[in-house]
Amino acid sequence: MCEKARKMTNITPETRIMMMRTPDARNTYRRQILAALAVSLGPFAAGLSKGYMSPALASMQDGKQLQGSFSVSDQQASWIASLSLLGAFIGGIMGGLAMRLGRRTVLLTTALPYTLTWLATALATSVRMISIASFCAGMLVCCINMATLVYVTEIAVPEIRGCLSSVLKILSQIGILISFTLGAYLNWTQLALMVAAAPILLFFALFFIPETPSSLLLRGKEQEAEESLQWLRGPDADVRQELATIRTNILASKLANGSHTNKFKVLLSKRLTRPVLITCGLMFFQRFTGANLLNFYAVDLFKKTLSSMNPHGGAIAASVAQLLASCLSGMLIDNVGRLPLLMISGVMMSIALAGFGSYAYYFEEVFRNTTNTTQIGQGTYLESSYDWIPLLCVLTLTIAFSLGIGPISSLLVGELFPLEYRSTGSALATSFSHLCGFVNVKTATDFQNHIGLYGLFWMYSGISVLCLLFVVLFVPETKGREIDEMDPKYVESLCINR
């Protein structure tokens, strides 16, 4: 008997938590999946809005305006597209502050106002009105995306956390695909009304799921946290050890932070600065590797590089490739790991971007600048016969992006930050991401005018190479790792960091 007790004493805290979960709870994860699917309606609505811009801007500029509508120039189109990202920059700061009140609370308070911004877009009668609506929509959707990602990170066990986070990206890609597809047939007003309906589904789905246990415990709501964790792990699961681990680690973290008399030192502590630098670095590369432009200018880019194929068809094909790659990423991310997928993504993106830039250079310089009539006719024929080259490059780019840096950079925001810094860290990384997105989308037209379409994509290819080096040198592997407040060794790590 003493021998048996001694063996039980030697069991690690991680094993003890797993033993206290029932086999059924470990194998099915049913309620965690249901909760993730409920909040994934937020990224779905965000995907509809991302996919809206490309066909909508083409509709506004194609000369077939609605009665009483307005014309949109190239510069105005770049402002409409980029102002949503500038709004998201502000939204990241607001969302980080608001998440202190709860992740689910943020989603509830932003869902219906998000619908109103799209109704305002559909009813807009001037460029100014649609620009203001775009800014407000970006601000709200950033809060939704950020709260959704943190919610899923905090409710999921390590075995399925990467997969559930990929579900958010998959639903977002489905939203983009729907907007691209319907955008080939609907004008920008009709498409805006379709987008406006999606956040209503999110609002009602949130009434059936709880707040995250970590967020509730952080605010001292112990009874509600226990009920939330019990709901997520299943009615038969024993959540006492897991709840005690979270509670102890939160208290230890507060004590560790409270011992610092200089708050400036806390802000510069390794526990905050290292995740900020890693996540912001990944967000920079995510935005400046070209794939971000496809959500806003896919139809326009294909108009400039495809001579025989419908540009809307090219945009839809790229969106389908994104969706399939996101599904594949969801299956691989918890098995292969984060780093291998990031490295594969960096290599593929560099090659695809260089190929697209070379294609654009060859035909812009050789055929479109020729003055010989015979050569012009021959050039047009050759462009038509080689339409598959830019399409293949774009498909490779979107697959690489959706397989690696797209979903994983967002996942790491939730995984790398400790609970006490998660709201602040998520706000910093998300706001920085959207600031980079704003600069990228707004200046893409200007870069194209100065260095050509080929120069723009060669520049993106070089940035992708730097992204690969950054991943190899600085990004840690988080596969299978508990987030801090659920890690039985967290208190020990706090002591080491102090």
UniProtKB/TrEMBL annotation:
Q: How does it sit in the membrane?
A: Multi-pass membrane protein
Q: What is the name of the protein in this document? A: Major facilitator superfamily (MFS) profile domain-containing protein
Which superkingdom does the taxonomy of this entry point to? Eukaryota
* GO molecular function list: transmembrane transporter activity
Q: Which Pfam families has this protein been placed in? A: Sugar_tr
User: TM spans, by residue?
Assistant: 76-98, 105-124, 130-152, 164-185, 191-209, 272-294, 340-362, 388-413, 451-475
Recite the UniProt keywords alphabetically. Answer: Cell membrane, Membrane, Sugar transport, Transmembrane, Transmembrane helix, Transport
* Cell compartment(s), UniProt: Cell membrane
What cellular component terms from Gene Ontology apply here?
plasma membrane
Q: Give start and end of each Major facilitator superfamily (MFS) profile domain.
A: 35-479
